[in-house]
Amino acid sequence: MHAVPGPRHERPKDEADGYVAAVMDRSLHFWVPTLPGAVPAARREVAAQLGLWGLRPGAAVVETAVLAVSELVTNTVRHAARASARADVHLGMDRRHLMVAVHDRDPRIPRRREVPHLDGSGGWGLHLVEALATQAGGRTSIPRDPDGGGKTVTVLLPL
Q1: What is the pTM of this model?
Q2: Cα(66)–Cα(79) distance, rounded to whole angstroms?
């Protein structure tokens, strides 16, 4: 069993570096390795930070954000680990919005599946994230890095 180190915190990168560029009152950027144990670590980090920002545990926006991070980091672990040794997670919050973004260096853009994998191994992650964001009045986007070598899946949720 491999030990998964805790999230690594860094200053957010700007738009020119291919990360989410957003003007938010509050911001957190951390990264996790693209290993299975990173998924619960990312969930815990996001839930803890949102609590520090005053969002109530169990609130719909908190649950949606934590689920989005879980699904997006899982996708990076499953599909992008060969090209990206880490998943960068960015949270931002202002008076009206909560932003969750996960970046990796795999150039392939994820495709939303209308039908899950026949073997029961998943396939609903991006579909679920998009549906929850839309239901909450938010939106998702998947911009490519300027160099084409990665992408950021961004979820913007109203508060």
Answers
A1: 0.82
A2: 20
